[in-house]
């Protein structure tokens, strides 16, 4: 009786399955299904990381406004909003193709403009990859707004945003990262290590910032005729600190996300990122404590960022212990770099040049020295070559661009506008209207 | 009527306010001000650059009272605002010509 019952059940089930069109699994179909799970995981991780990196835009905005004056807060928000918005479009139209398009020379790409690599119904990986890359391009672009804060004409800054996202950033990027998609850069072919972009992103932003700060000149009242440096106090240190926390968290997408794959490699990259940030923060604090007599918040915040920037290149190819060393050295370098640029009268309200340009170069160099597979003169040499190539491409190009903008529509606001504050002069607004006595608007009931 | 203006250390405001309420004053106006007397400012540091802060934050209290209460007000403020350290502040006493309550048009002591 039991076997008859079993036979009936099996027969019914087979008929049901055949009716539903179900094929029994084969090893090949299993492999395809398993591979698809990994592919899906790659998409998920890459896009989650892209969202984290996008949020770094908020981090930059908060750091920059916290370290600058209240009368320019709206302007800082507008610049940070727009360098992302304009940059996204520019990178979609031109930048991505130049950076990752097919190339014969190895110096720039020539395909994939306007996201032409994607066709409806086609493989959407190019979309995920583009999304991840556009937030990196935007990171490089927004670094500059900090160094040029409080005296830059908004229209001039918009033009710069388009050019860096469309041209300056992607061309160098193609040399180092083109091979991640359809390209093949000359620099990466030599073995250049820059996993998440200490040079590709941060030094590109940092040297552009240097060019901008030099062409602009310092803020009014920053340096006196008899050589004194007068601090211009930021208006909100809690916002500056919030910005650094947001950037630190966003970096957990920036560095580990650069695997663009969901695998175990991301664990060490996460740890390296965190240890370098922590070490940079601690060391910079101690350096400020020793030098100035009290642990200073501005330098400590810059120290954390310096560690993060420095570890960005080596994060996948150094050990956690090395990360602490790299972060610590960055913490020392950034303090003295900030003081140095002030001494040579290059006014950088947030320390962008020191954090991103100088520590980006250092981190790239450290990637050669602390390379987990062992170092060599060749490895270090290629790193140095990449650092130099970046500076030689970015600084003169950005300098020329800012000079051009200055000569045509003007790069700097008038002294009257600068003293009044860009919020009113450029945007007709007031970031903190409640803190002003005014008869023309109501602050509420009496 | 007398006007008693005092400049005191900001953290003393609550103490002074409570003490003045206890002796029966009917109102006060306070202002956040900055200034210095013999208490000089101090040095601060911002991202590695030193700067001098000359003006120290203070609270200014204006109280208008009937002449009979004036001395008691001065003694009260003096006692509660004092810390013994430099920067305790000052009290200025002057005479008021007239006072008016806007709502009722009362004048003189009735307006206080």
Overall spatial form of chain B = elongated
Distance between the termini of chain A: 91 Å
What is the SS-derived class of chain A? mainly alpha
CATH architecture classification name of chain A: Orthogonal Bundle
Approximate strand percentage of chain B: 35-45%
Number of strands of chain B: 6
Largest sheet of chain B: 4 strands, antiparallel
Number of domains of chain B: 1
CATH topology title of chain A: Ammonium transporter fold
CATH class of chain A: Mainly Alpha
The number of helical segments of chain B is: 2
Gyration radius of chain B (Cα, Å) is 17 Å
Give the helix/strand layout.
The complex is a heterodimer of chains A (446) and B (112).
Chain A: H1 2-20, H2 27-66, H3 73-100, H4 125-147, H5 154-177, H6 186-189, H7 198-216, H8 237-254, H9 265-292, H10 297-312, H11 320-343, H12 352-369, H13 377-408, H14 415-420, H15 422-427
Chain B: E1 2-8, H1 13-22, E2 29-35, E3 42-46, E4 49-53, E5 56-65, H2 67-81, E6 89-95
Antiparallel strand pairs in B: 1-5, 1-6, 2-5, 3-4
Helix pairs in contact in B: 1-2
How would you sum up this structure, described in words?
The complex is a heterodimer of chains A (446) and B (112). Chain A is mostly helical. Helices cover 68% and strands 0% of the residues of chain A. In chain A, helix 2 (27-66) packs antiparallel against helix 8 (237-254), helix 4 (125-147) crosses helix 5 and helix 4 runs parallel beside helix 7. Chain A is globular, with a radius of gyration of 25 Å. Chain B has one domain: Alpha-Beta Plaits, CATH 3.30.70. Chain B has helices spanning 13-22, 67-81, and strands at residues 2-8, 29-35, 42-46, 49-53, 56-65, 89-95. A 4-stranded antiparallel sheet of chain B has the order 2-5-1-6, with helices on one face. In chain B, helix 1 (13-22) runs antiparallel to helix 2. Chains A and B meet through helix 9, helix 10 and helix 11 of A and strand 4 of B.
């Amino acid at each position: 009786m039991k076997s008859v019952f079993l036979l009936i059940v099996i027969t019914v089930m087979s008929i049901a399955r055949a009716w539903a069109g179900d094929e029994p699994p084969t090893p090949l179909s299993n492999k395809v299904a398993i591979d698809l799970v990994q592919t899906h995981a790659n998409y998920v991780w890459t896009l989650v990381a892209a969202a984290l990196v996008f949020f770094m835009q908020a981090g930059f905005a908060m750091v920059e406004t916290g370290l600058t004056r209240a009368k320019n807060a709206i302007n800082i928000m507008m610049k940070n909003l727009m360098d992302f918005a304009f940059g996204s479009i520019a990178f979609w139209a031109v930048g991505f193709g130049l950076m990752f398009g097919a190339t014969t020379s190895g110096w720039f790409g020539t395909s994939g403009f306007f996201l032409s690599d994607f066709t409806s119904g086609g493989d959407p990986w190019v979309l995920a990859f583009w999304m991840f890359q556009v937030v990196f391009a935007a990171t490089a672009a927004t670094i500059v707004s900090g160094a040029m804060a409080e005296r830059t004409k908004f229209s001039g800054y918009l033009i710069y945003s388009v050019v860096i996202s469309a041209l300056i950033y992607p061309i160098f990027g193609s040399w180092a990262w083109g091979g991640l998609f359809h390209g093949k850069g000359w620099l990466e072919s030599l073995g250049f290590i820059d996993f998440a972009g200490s040079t590709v992103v941060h030094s590109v932003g940092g040297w552009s910032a240097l060019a901008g700060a030099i062409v602009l000149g310092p803020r009014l009242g920053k340096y006196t005729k008899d050589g004194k440096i007068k601090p211009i106090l930021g208006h909100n240190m809690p916002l500056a600190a919030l910005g650094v926390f947001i950037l630190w968290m966003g970096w957990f997408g920036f560095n580990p996300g650069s695997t663009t794959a969901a695998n175990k490699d991301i664990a060490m990259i996460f740890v390296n990122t965190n240890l370098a940030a922590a070490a940079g923060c601690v060391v910079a604090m101690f350096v400020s404590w020793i030098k100035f007599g009290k642990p200073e918040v501005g330098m400590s915040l810059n120290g954390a960022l310096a560690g993060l920037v420095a570890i960005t290149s080596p994060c996948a190819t150094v050990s956690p212990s090395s990360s602490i060393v790299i972060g610590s050295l960055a913490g020392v370098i950034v303090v003295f770099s900030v003081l140095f640029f002030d001494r040579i009268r290059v006014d950088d309200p947030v320390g962008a040049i020191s954090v991103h340009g100088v520590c980006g170069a250092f981190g790239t160099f450290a990637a050669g020295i602390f390379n987990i597979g062992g170092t060599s003169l060749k490895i270090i040499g290629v790193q140095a070559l990449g650092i130099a190539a970046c500076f030689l491409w970015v600084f003169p190009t950005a300098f020329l661009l800012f000079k051009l903008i200055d000569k045509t529509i003007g790069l700097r606001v008038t002294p009257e506008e600068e003293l009044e504050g860009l919020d009113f002069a450029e945007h007709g607004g007031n970031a903190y209207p409640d803190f002003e006595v005014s008869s023309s608007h109501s602050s509420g009931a009496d | 009527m007398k006007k008693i203006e005092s400049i005191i250390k900001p953290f003393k405001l609550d103490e002074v306010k409570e003490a003045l309420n206890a002796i029966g004053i009917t109102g006060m106006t306070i202002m956040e001000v900055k200034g210095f007397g013999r208490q000089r400012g101090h040095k601060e540091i911002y991202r590695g650059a030193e700067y001098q802060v000359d003006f120290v934050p203070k609270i200014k209290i204006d109280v208008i009272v009937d002449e009979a209460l004036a001395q008691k007000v001065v003694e009260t403020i003096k006692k509660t605002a004092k810390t013994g350290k430099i920067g305790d502040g000052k009290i200025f006493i002057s005479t008021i010509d007239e006072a008016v309550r806007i709502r009722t048009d009362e004048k003189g002591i009735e307006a206080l």
